[in-house]
């Protein structure tokens, strides 16, 4: 037998082989100490064997060549020789050596038979179908595998390897790292001297330090920081904002929570895949009665279409019929779900401000968002994979839902005083945002005899998700057009038809809280009192408005679900949250921007007034907001300490900790449900005082964080 040896400067981690002048092996030293080292030639693990050597290997038993077979051959007096090889050799059994070998290939220290890719200049090699943004900066040597996408502002300092179908999102920074295939590196992430394995999802603004290894199928949450030499074993998940200082080997695998503020949310084809959607649909179906019907809707973009079809494939497997409403505004689907025999609904939409993200929202039989208990039931089925699989004839049907727009329009018109709107001869400008509201509202406004200037009324999937800056420009353009045409009202819809942005008859873009206050004032006037609902972070102006009309105010949690739950309560005539969401329970107890526009016109016509006049009549208020970093593992401690320290000033427990400082001043400290943050709201008798209060209590909350 012949062993191939190699000379190394540090033989302590290898099997040292000692030979005579003729190359015959005399002794083996397995991983010696420095005191035992008398040679620098080590075993490479490359052997040339005569067939009879195999007779020394016991049948059916493990056998280690270096520790058992070769010492046995040496003891038996068999001829063992060594060949000391030149060239390149390294043992890739350790992480540093694996990285060194990879980088040595890039730097040309290793002669390999095939080219590693197409050389595009500057020590950059790529395979087919690679996309590199014009403003990306690559400093070689760098290898980019097939289908890699390098987005705007990315910086890669080599040596670095990025394998097939991996996405490096905007402003990612990679330095001396290896990223395996099908990984996603989120916006603004920093990867330095790390290894990212297969199908790993690194969220935005994370930091991975020297020596970090992230195992297959792991997820590192937004803003997390992994300290040097941390190892994540496969299928682990790191919470957003977490700081990880030691390796994670044991513990729960994968995500254990599906639902967030916007339903089930994630990056398309990273977090949310077709197979994920099919399992999610099956999990939803498993908690519903067999043979029942669920409405399924999407917006016009290709990503929600793909996810929706996955959901639709999962529902029938659990014995649930899928009523496909195609692509309708969300309020239309909520209404249709409520008035038909459907037991629930699903809507899939592209995030309005990030086209990489898809939101999946589930409805109950009333068209409202699912409660927390039902969401937890779905999560249990999903994570346990305890799906209900029905047999043959029990498999659900997939059909297009009939008369969706017609049923909605019928109920819509019945909820309005159509005669007074028609007589008012309104002139309005409506921006449909190239989205589904353009499929429903134009016919309704035509029937109401409104003179409408339509903007962006053609569906365009490329414009369904836009940056906040572009939205603001569009609203400013709406205001300019409305002012030039002397329109009574200007309105822009969000993509789903739930939120609206309003311009008054003087061309002013109205803040969302001002619109809520104006609609509350108009609704209370029209009904001669009643109950309105606003979130706990809304200013005291609503109490004053309600008091003027003999009405009441219900405060809710700061989320749409809390608003909709309040809208079901008796005598509630209107609800709004200061984020563009409005509810008129007489029509449906769900957020609906379409009916909000019609109700605004009805109120203005009935009361023979203008929107600007109503806005100018409202009491003044002064509200300020701050936010502070608050890691997940200290949020509970901060809120407990606030409760204990300010018990005497604490108001009703609705959401967060609200402190009533005086008749005109209050502060609310509210943990963010999805991010490692806390929000601080403050109201006072001036903008300056409100800002000072918000800043002061933000500092107090920061000081209450444990060290």
Compose a concise summary of this entry.
The chain has about 700 residues and is of the alpha/beta class. It is about 30% helix and about 25% strand. The chain is built from 17 helices and 46 strands.
The shape, in one word, is elongated
Number of strands: 46
Radius of gyration: 33 Å
Structural class: alpha/beta
Order of strands, widest sheet: 6-7-10-13-16-19-22-25
Q: Main beta sheet, described? A: 8 strands, mixed
Would you identify the regions where 5 or more consecutive residues have pLDDT less than 50?
none
Distance between the termini: 63 Å
Helical fraction equals: 25-40%
Overall pLDDT: 91
User: How many individual helices?
Assistant: 17
Tell me what portion of residues adopts beta-strand conformation.
25-35%
């Amino acid at each position: 037998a012949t062993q191939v040896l190699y000379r190394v400067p540090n033989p302590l981690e290898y099997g040292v082989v000692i030979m005579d002048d003729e190359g015959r092996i005399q002794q083996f030293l397995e991983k010696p100490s420095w005191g035992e080292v008398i040679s620098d030639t080590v075993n490479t693990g490359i052997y040339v064997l005569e067939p009879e050597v195999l007779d020394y290997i016991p049948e059916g038993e493990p056998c280690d060549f270096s520790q058992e077979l070769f010492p046995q051959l040496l003891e038996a007096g068999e001829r063992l020789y060594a060949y000391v090889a030149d060239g390149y050799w390294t043992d890739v059994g350790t992480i540093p050596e694996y990285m060194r070998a990879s980088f040595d290939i890039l730097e040309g220290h290793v002669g390999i038979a095939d080219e590693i890719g197409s050389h595009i200049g500057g020590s950059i090699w790529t395979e087919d179908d690679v996309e590199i943004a014009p403003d990306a900066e690559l400093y070689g040597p760098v290898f980019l595998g097939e289908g890699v996408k390098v987005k705007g502002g990315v910086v890669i300092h080599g040596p670095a390897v990025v394998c097939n179908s991996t996405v490096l999102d905007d402003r990612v920074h990679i330095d001396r790292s290896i990223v395996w295939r099908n990984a996603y590196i989120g916006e603004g992430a920093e990867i330095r001297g790390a290894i990212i394995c297969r199908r790993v999802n690194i969220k935005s603004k994370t930091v991975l330090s020297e020596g970090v290894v992230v195992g297959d199928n792991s997820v590192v949450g937004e803003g997390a920081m992994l300290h040097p030499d941390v190892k994540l074993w496969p299928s682990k998940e790191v919470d957003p904002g977490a700081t990880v200082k030691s390796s994670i080997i044991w513990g729960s695998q994968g995500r254990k929570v599906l639902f967030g503020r916007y339903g089930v949310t994630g990056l398309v084809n990273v977090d949310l895949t077709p197979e994920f959607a099919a399992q999610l649909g099956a999990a939803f179906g498993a908690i519903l009665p067999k043979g029942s019907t669920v409405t399924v809707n999407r917006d016009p973009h290709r990503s929600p279409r793909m996810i929706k079809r996955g959901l639709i494939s999962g529902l029938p497997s659990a014995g649930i019929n899928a009523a496909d409403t195609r692509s309708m505004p969300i309020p239309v689907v909520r209404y249709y779900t409520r008035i038909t025999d459907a037991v629930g609904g699903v809507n899939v939409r592209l995030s309005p401000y990030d086209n990489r993200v898809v939101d999946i929202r589930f409805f109950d039989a009333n068209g409202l968002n699912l409660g927390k208990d039902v969401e937890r039931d779905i999560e249990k089925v999903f994570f346990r994979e305890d799906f209900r699989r029905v047999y043959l004839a029990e498999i659900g049907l997939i059909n297009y839902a009939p008369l969706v727009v017609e049923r909605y329009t019928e109920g819509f018109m019945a909820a309005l005083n159509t005669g007074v709107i028609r007589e008012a001869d309104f002139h309005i400008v409506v921006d449909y945002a190239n989205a589904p509201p353009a499929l429903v509202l134009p016919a309704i406004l035509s029937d109401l005899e409104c003179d409408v200037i339509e903007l962006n009324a053609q569906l365009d999937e490329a414009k369904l998700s836009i940056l906040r800056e572009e939205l603001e420009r569009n609203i400013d353009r709406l205001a300019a057009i409305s002012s030039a045409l002397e329109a009574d009202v200007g309105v822009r819809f969000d993509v789903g038809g739930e939120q609206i942005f309003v311009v008054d008859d003087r061309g002013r873009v109205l803040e969302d809280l001002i619109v809520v206050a104006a609609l509350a004032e108009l609704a209370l006037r029209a009904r001669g009192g009643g109950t309105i609902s606003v979130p706990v972070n809304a200013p005291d102006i609503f109490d004053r408005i309600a008091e003027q009309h003999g009405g009441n105010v219900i405060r809710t949690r700061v989320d749409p679900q809390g608003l909709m739950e309040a809208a079901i309560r008796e005598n509630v005539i209107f609800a709004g949250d200061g984020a563009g969401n409005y509810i008129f329970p007489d029509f449906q107890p769900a957020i609906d921007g379409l009916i909000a526009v019609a109700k605004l016109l009805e109120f203005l016509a009935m009361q023979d007034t203008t929107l600007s006049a109503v806005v100018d009549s409202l009491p003044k208020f002064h509200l300020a907001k701050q936010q502070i970093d608050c890691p997940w593992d200290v949020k509970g401690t901060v809120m407990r300490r606030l409760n204990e320290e300010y018990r005497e000033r604490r108001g009703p427990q609705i959401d967060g900790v609200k402190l009533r400082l005086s008749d005109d001043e209050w502060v609310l400290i509210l943990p963010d449900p999805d991010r490692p943050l806390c929000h601080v709201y403050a109201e006072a008798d001036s903008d300056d005082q409100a800002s000072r209060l918000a800043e002061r209590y933000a500092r107090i909350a920061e000081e209450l964080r444990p060290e």
